[in-house]
Design a protein that fits this description.
There is one protein chain. With 166 residues, the chain is of the alpha+beta class. Helices cover 31% and strands 27% of the residues. Strands 1, 2, 3, 4, 5 and 6 form a six-stranded mixed beta sheet that branches. β3 and β4 form a beta hairpin. The chain contains four helices and six strands.
């Protein structure tokens, strides 16, 4: 099965929104497919994030319930996505991206899709002059940590991060 990575466009917002809804449910949020689709559509319309999607040929897939996956166009299935938020570094005086969301549909995991999405994000960032990509993951998510480290991400040892809910 061949997986292709490309930048998502507005026409992909429904399918990416469906995956985004599943991603949020993975993090114990209530399902809300319409709100998820609207959120993704707004990010795309406002050029507030960069979203890459993984897609594969539906014909090459075996054993997957097609009602559980998204059809991007005739013969293609959306299997995962990564969402990057542009920001800036004052100290470095340049653009940075925050990799906020990475998700692969459960039927397509362990096939290297997440790795390909990370590699594509790195390539696109390099092409666009982005200085670095930062991300965070749950302390208990050892599988994701191993993936990030295998792709060259390093745990920050210089700064402590804080949050304030408002």
């Amino acid at each position: 099965m061949q997986h292709r990575i490309r930048q998502a466009g507005l026409l992909d917002s429904n399918e990416v929104g469906r995956l985004f809804n599943e991603y949020r449910m993975f993090y114990n949020q209530n399902a809300d497919i319409e709100a998820a689709r609207q959120y993704i559509r707004e990010r795309m319309e406002g050029h507030e994030s960069v979203i890459l999607v993984a897609e594969t040929d539906a014909e090459s897939d075996h054993g997957t319930d097609e009602s559980n996956v998204m059809s991007l166009s005739k013969g293609l299935i959306c299997t995962g996505f990564v969402q990057l938020y542009p920001s800036f570094s004052s100290v470095s005086m340049g653009p940075v991206w925050v990799l906020n969301d990475l998700y692969v549909h459960p039927d397509y995991r362990q096939q290297g899709i997440a790795k390909k999405l990370l590699q594509a994000a790195k390539q696109l960032a390099s092409e666009r002059g982005v200085l670095r990509i930062s991300l965070s993951t749950e302390l208990s998510n050892k599988q994701a940590q191993a993936l990030y480290e295998s792709e060259g991400y390093a745990q920050d040892t210089k700064f402590m991060y804080y949050e304030l809910n408002v």
